[in-house]
Every structure is written in C-alpha cells, then in structure tokens.
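Renewal narrative, Specific Aim 1. Our central claim is that a sequence can be written position by position from structural information alone. The example that follows is taken directly from our test logs and has not been curated for this report. It begins with the structure tokens describing the chain, in the order in which they were read.
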C-alpha cells in the first residue's frame, strides 16, 4: 500500500518517514542472506586456494624423498616462509623382494601432511623403493 501525503505546496508528494523506514528494513532483510552467500563463496575460494598450494607442496616433498631426504625411518618437519608446515613421516613398508636381476630393494611408506594454521590442507601417501646392494 503506497500512501502519498501532501505537504505545503500543492501537488508535491512524498513518502512518510515511517514508510521509508519500513522500506529500508525490508531491503536490509532481503540483502542479508545475499551477503551471507557472497562471503561463503569468498571463503570457499580462499580454502580451495589453500588446498591447491598444500597439494603442490605435498607432491613436491613426496617427490623429493630419496634425494633431499634419505630413505630411512624417521620424521622431518619443514616450516615454509608463507606459514605452511610440511610433516614427512617415513616408515618401513613391505619387506624386501627379489627383482628380475636378483637385486633386492626395500619399500618405504612415505606420508606427507601439509598444514596451515594447525589445520590440515593436504595429505599424500606413497611408496618409495630403495635398492639394496
């Protein structure tokens, strides 16, 4: 219901203060859920970016086990400059097995966990082989 009031000069019409306040309140109530969805979307983008960087770190460190980090039982914790923490855990995998040319190898289970602000953003597990003499 629209109610126009006449003020002073004939023919000049406008909304009352109460009508204006009600309209602004209805508009604000309609915009609050839209703003909430927008901020949820921004947070989802931020989290996916963190997960992507974490996955890249995990892949990189998993690939470097055996060259930068020796294949021995143990744990290595690396703190990156940008706040990521990489936890590399190396443990015995399956027992030694014979290969076609009679060389032996040991398998190691490598578990890489990438954290940001004490929250896990990526986790990879893989097997690495070490040829024995």
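The sequence written for that structure reads:
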């Amino acid at each position: 219901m629209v109610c126009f009031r006449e003020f002073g000069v004939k023919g000049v019409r406008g909304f009352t203060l109460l009508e204006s306040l009600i309209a602004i309140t209805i508009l604000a109530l309609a915009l609050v859920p839209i703003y909430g969805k927008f901020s949820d979307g921004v947070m989802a983008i931020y989290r996916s970016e963190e997960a992507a960087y974490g996955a890249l770190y995990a892949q990189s460190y998993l690939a470097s086990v055996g060259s930068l980090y020796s294949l021995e039982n143990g744990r290595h914790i690396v703190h990156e400059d940008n706040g990521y923490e990489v936890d590399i855990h190396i443990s015995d995998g399956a027992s030694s097995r014979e290969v076609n040319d009679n060389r032996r190898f040991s398998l190691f289970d490598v578990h890489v966990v990438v954290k940001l602000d004490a929250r896990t953003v990526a986790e990879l597990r893989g097997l690495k082989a070490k040829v024995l003499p």
